[in-house]
Amino acid sequence: MPEGDTVYQSARRLDTALAGKVLTETDFRVPAFATVDLAGRTVDEVVSRGKHLLARVGDMTIHSHLKMEGSWELYRPGAHWRHPAHQARVILRTEDTTAVGFQLGLLEVISRDREEEAVGYLGPDLLGADWDAGEAVRRLAEHPDAPIAVALLDQRNLAGLGNEYVNELCFLRGMLPTRPVRDADLAAAVRLGHRMIVANRDRTVRVTTGDTRRGRTSWVYGREGELCLRCGTRIQRSELGRNELELRVSYYCPHCQT
């Protein structure tokens, strides 16, 4: 599942291409919204909220979530698409741009005044203008027995961190992913998570180590069996989650993290 900075970048690209433009054609390829036609309406803006995308068109909002496989891509009229047409879930056309949402895990068209029903459950948005670190800490602290990695991944606590950031954050804070929330310095973890995602929101390659060289951009994520860049211990991998549907892969250094 993409990290919040990936969704933020997608929203900015869509906003740059579509905001202020009149839609000349819309094609929603999901049964529940197949008859919706927003042609003739102007796109006001496209924004991200955690890992959700909100394209505001007049009094309507196109709400999407990439989930695991989804993407939004922009093309010039007539240009060849990089993915097969049957994977397109929505097509938005203006006079000079075609925006295509491929394999979106969630797509719906709702009235703008119902946005809070769709995303209001989310915690503070790490990349939002209204980011509230104190509220994020408060929500995390409400689950003292939860493993810290599970709590940080829960978008109801704070919105935007995915598995990669959470693994890297746990390493940098010296915490095993299984450490209970009650034993973690929540304020420090939230500050660091915010600092990391803000530092990467404009980058094409995500870096958490400060080293952009190949194979050295992350401390533990995806590095099972490789040597810890700090102490030389082999990185280990495990699964963590409240049930089979929520299992996440965790990477950690058994020496640097406790």
TrEMBL record:
Domain Formamidopyrimidine-DNA glycosylase catalytic: 2-101
Biological processes annotated in GO: base-excision repair
The organism's place on the tree of life at top rank: Bacteria
PROSITE patterns: FPG_CAT, ZF_FPG_2
Keywords tagged on the record: DNA damage, DNA repair, DNA-binding, Glycosidase, Hydrolase, Lyase, Metal-binding, Multifunctional enzyme, Zinc, Zinc-finger
SMART domains: Fapy_DNA_glyco, H2TH
Catalytic activity, EC: 4.2.99.18
MF annotations from Gene Ontology: class I DNA-(apurinic or apyrimidinic site) endonuclease activity; damaged DNA binding; oxidized pyrimidine nucleobase lesion DNA N-glycosylase activity; zinc ion binding
EC supergroup of this enzyme: lyase
Residue ranges of every copy of the FPG-type domain listed in the record: 219-258
Similarity-based family: Belongs to the FPG family.
Protein name: DNA-(apurinic or apyrimidinic site) lyase
Organism of origin: Leifsonia poae
